[in-house]
Amino acid sequence: VPYFMLVCAYRTRELAENDETRLAIGLVAETNPFIKLIKLRPLATRSIALIISETLYRPVAEVLELTAIVHSKTNGNPLAIRNFLTELNDINVIRFDRDHREWVWDTQAASQHPPTDNVIAFLAHRITHLEPETTQLLKVASCAGEEFDLNTIRTVSGLSYSETSARLLQAV
Description:
Layout: H1 20-31, H2 45-56, H3 64-74, H4 78-90, E1 94-97, E2 102-105, H5 107-112, H6 119-128, H7 132-142, H8 150-157, H9 161-171
């Protein structure tokens, strides 16, 4: 197929040496010279500093202490970085100070917060903090499978379009 690009991602440490997926990936890569396997390494401290600097609209020099904490908690894993920063924001360790119109953070609280290594545990924690109505709607949606549309869930739940949309938006 001309002009086709497929990008796949997986964690090598989560696949056993004899796992069918790992064997299939290796076979495809060996038999096709156009396929390139790229091993991604953890983000360097400098890259994390740039992400945090741009996210919080602060100079890199001002976020170095927070960067060191984030790096130590996430080992440079991009998903773990995102989850950790999101969690810090959720518990107001990182927050927007409306009076001064800038992002502020508590480095001591950030350093004491546990890392979010386990994505499943992170998502489970997030789900427990949803409103009960949203949780109930997600239960209904789960019966539709891994993909569904708003109209189907609205019809099945008996909720209005705006109510269904608002509850799903909280989950998203």
